[in-house]
Write a structure and sequence with these properties.
The protein has about 625 residues and is of the alpha+beta class. The chain is built from 31 helices and 17 strands. The chain has a six-stranded mixed beta sheet, with helices on both faces. Helix 20 crosses helix 21, helix 29 crosses helix 30 and helix 30 packs antiparallel against helix 31.
Amino acid sequence: MGLIKKEIIEEIKENISLLDLVEEYVKLKKRGKSFIGHCPFHDDKSPSFNVSANKGLYHCFGCHEGGDAIRFYEKYHGLNFKTSIEELAKRLGYREEDIYESKKENEKSKKQRQYKDQLIEVMEEACDFFEKHLDKKTIKYLQDSRKLSIETIREYRMGLTPLGMSDLTFHLLNKGFDKQFLLTSGLTLESNGELKDFFQNRIMIPIRNSSGYTVGFSGRRKSENQKSKYVNSKENPIFQKKKLSFNLDKAKKSILNKDYIILTEGYFDVIQLREFGFYNVVACMGTSIDEYQIRNLSKYSPNQNIYLALDNDEGGKKAILQILDKIKRLILSQDINVFIIQQKESKDIDDYLKQGYDFNKLIEDATPAIDYLMKNIIFQNNRDSSKSLHQLKRMCNQIKDEPLQIEYRRRIAKYFSGGEPNLFKTYMEFLNKESKYISKDKKDKKFNKNQQLSVYSTDNQLLYLILFTGYKLWICRELLNKENDCNQPLIELLPPHVQELIMEINEMDSNKYLLYDLQLILDSNKEYISNKECNLKLLNFINANQVYLEHLAESPEDSIQDILNLLIYKRYSNYLNYLKKKLQENPTDDTLNKYIEIKSKLTEQESKIQTQTSLDCK
């Protein structure tokens, strides 16, 4: 056997929930944001075993044993690391031969590591080069206009591109770097047979990974005549914007000590806040922030506290709402605590700091994300109380923490009633009406195993298939808007709780957001699929349809119609059975004609689905 593939280990860490794994062996109780139980590794008389689901880590305060899901499985079963990985990978559907690198793959991995090391080496050399070309004029601009000290400028190793079009390229060639390598690194371009520097006429800000290595650059324009304000390095194996946060290498220690992160949208916002003594600040890398980035950042704060500090203009407000919509699930489940910093006195952080305002005061007065979202619902509906009330109720019911859910119900009722007692009572009664989002404890009391919904019906499997491949939102629009010849929207073919989920997803901005992934669907329906047998069925379904999944990922446009054809076929089939029963009870010419018509369409539809890759929905 060769080495275990790195991506297998990463996939185990991402897809096997430590909480679910531990609960197979240890009875846990929720306490705050963590779960506690009796430690399985020593004679634990009082619960000292602590599991942090969000961080994916456990720790026993009695015997001091701790680690992640892999370590727990290894320790509990008395296995070595290799065997633990094998068994956990098999839970995800991997065969043993898929887990290990072949000799050829091992060589490939070695070359990839060497290539990444060489990329870091060339980026560090380029950083030295830009830093040496930082002239007095640019330093004066940074000091006067940006209010940065010379110490801060040096600390961030800010630099400047020289006047020549190819100075960096020739410098790196003279240092022994290969021409083709420089082209693939993104530092050099080739035009009409000439080599040119990628960055031209810009103030250079090095971008480092969380370990402090330079992996790329962001170049700010020197002249307002230049088209793009900022130009970032091209994506490569060490520079992937989604996985990077500017200044995280310097901010980690302060984030841990202060227990919160300030997240801004600009590099200079970060640097200027640091100049004013705020060291726990990071910025996203020019991409729209998503759940993946927020979850990764939150791990650096012990209690997952994040403060969003974006510009106080229309663009900034829109960006805040986009971020909150993307991470709403994390916010409402209390996995993270998000607050919005609003500097009303100025347009952006730069102006706010220059005008001498107290940024600490803004942090103290920051608005909790749930409050911000609820206020926006009222604002967007132009005080249409009926529409606002229903949307607020739905959001409120998704809050996992029951005391917090009750508190927000009271706030909503108070707002709409104006404090009038009878009206307050009426609104509270409406808000307290049970829905599918009642708390887990209440659900457990009402749950009847004999009435359990089948999450393995064909319709649900098709939905899982769509979600599993991560399609854009317009697939839901297809389901919602396209009607078949039976005059019934296709969405009505799905189970009610799935319909409600699709309707909820459909309210998002179709140009900005992806559908929730498979794991979210599993989390949202835990009461139906929490047992091992159901999880095994779903795993078998995914494995049985691996070919179809690959086809779906490669040709999403063609595959959407495949999925719709299957749903339409099922609708015709159900409708035909209904007509057959009707003919037996009360035969009429109209019913017979309709039966013949639908049977013909069913045959036609059957021929369509026979030409596409079949699904094993057993």
